[in-house]
Design the sequence.
């Protein structure tokens, strides 16, 4: 985590770089993740809980991996993906971190999120542009209002309109995505709806998103998956946290897993649970 924070401070004045901290611990909760955010100073960039394990799986993160560093370039391709930061040992970049050279290469090739040149960003809007890069839309609006109140030149207001329009386009795109997912993947649609409500509590689209979310809550598959996740958090996670030896794991965790699978083995979330328990087993076997 300290490496991520170090990179943030090195590049935070370079626009078009987005930092996201992702907690992939299978026994973490939003509250425990929030404590990590405070402890390691993981602000103001976004932090998310990968409770379902989808993000970890997408980037091939090992179940026992303590840290993973991923760089995605402007073409949405993975430019770096490793369990640590590696250095170049020779050549013109000798001594530099590989992920940093990949990041800098991407910045030269692609226009970035805002697609606006550094010179065209008013000084009063520099931090607002940074918050846009970080996709921290709540903090962004607060900063826009402060900047516009102080900068009477008109440049701040014009730039504020650009950012607000782009945030609005982003919201509309998310709403359309949720609408489409609700037909094909109701469980994922429900999760996206919950994330939307948290990210945009005062959005004009809120009523429509809530309507979709409430409808999905009555979907049998969604109910089943949510109950499976709740059961995992209530029964298995506490014992997985307590288990510090293989003996405790075998006598406490495994019987609970058997019972859990008898009840929720037909759900998609049960696959995540089995992977989490397997990761717990591997971690304990290394002691």
Sequence:
């Amino acid at each position: 985590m300290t490496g991520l924070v170090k990179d943030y401070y090195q590049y935070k004045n370079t626009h078009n770089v987005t930092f996201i901290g992702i907690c992939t611990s299978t026994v973490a909760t939003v509250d425990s993740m929030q404590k990590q955010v405070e402890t390691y100073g993981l602000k103001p960039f976004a932090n998310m809980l990968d409770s379902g394990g989808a993000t970890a799986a997408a980037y091939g993160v090992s179940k026992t991996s303590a840290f993973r560093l991923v760089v995605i370039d402007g073409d949405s391709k993975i430019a770096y993906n490793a369990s640590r930061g590696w250095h170049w040992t020779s050549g013109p970049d000798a001594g530099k971190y590989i992920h940093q050279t990949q990041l800098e290469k991407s910045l030269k090739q692609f226009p970035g999120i805002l697609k606006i040149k550094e010179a065209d960003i008013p000084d009063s809007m520099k931090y607002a542009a940074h918050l846009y890069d970080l996709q921290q839309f709540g903090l962004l609006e607060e900063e826009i209002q402060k900047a516009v109140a102080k900068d009477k030149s008109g440049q701040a207001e014009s730039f504020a309109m650009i950012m607000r329009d782009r945030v609005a386009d982003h919201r509309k795109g998310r709403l359309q995505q949720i609408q489409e997912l609700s037909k094909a993947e109701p469980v994922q649609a429900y999760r996206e709806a919950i994330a939307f409500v948290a990210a945009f509590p005062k959005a004009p689209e809120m009523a429509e998103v809530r309507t979709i979310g409430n409808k999905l809550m009555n979907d049998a598959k969604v109910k089943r998956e949510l109950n499976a996740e709740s059961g995992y958090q209530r029964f298995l996670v506490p014992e997985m946290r307590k288990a510090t030896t293989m003996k405790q794991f075998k006598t406490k965790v495994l019987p609970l897993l058997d019972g859990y699978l008898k009840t929720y083995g037909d759900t998609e979330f049960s696959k995540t649970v089995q992977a989490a328990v397997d990761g717990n087993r591997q971690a304990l076997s290394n002691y």
